[in-house]
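Notebook entry, structure prediction.
Reason for the run: the old model in the group folder had no record of what sequence produced it. Starting over properly, with the input documented here first.
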Amino acid sequence: MFRRNRADREFREAQRAGQAVLGMHTELPLPDFPGPDAAPAHATPESTVVPDFLPADFRAPSRQDVSGFMMRWDLPLVIDGEVHQCHCDAYRNWIVFNMRDDSVWLRCEAGHEAKESRLDTAWYNRNSGPVDHFHATLDEGLRHLGR
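New structure, fully documented this time:
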């Protein structure tokens, strides 16, 4: 019983100390920031300013810079509890495209393509790996994936 009381008392004291620290930060005076018309207090030479981002050669394209992403899906594709099948009876070895407009398209081995409205970008992101190559054309991407 005494141990629990002591532990409770220590916990309450720690809470009070934490509240005091938080209260202290709200009472600190805010620094005076210059207005938008004020000149800077000290100007730094342009030669010492180092950019905070990578050069263009080292940056990966963003999602808006590419038309879409593609990946292989060799297993049967199960959507809403049933195996998805193309009209040519193909049910595996898909190429899955995730386009810039967040639509998902499927392409079978025979080259038939269809938009799959039951899949979305979140599904694609959960099931795809990291991007390993960027291709200038669709044909180059398909060749890279073995089609």
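Summary: Residues 2 and 8 are 10 Å apart (CA to CA).
The old model has been moved to the deprecated folder.
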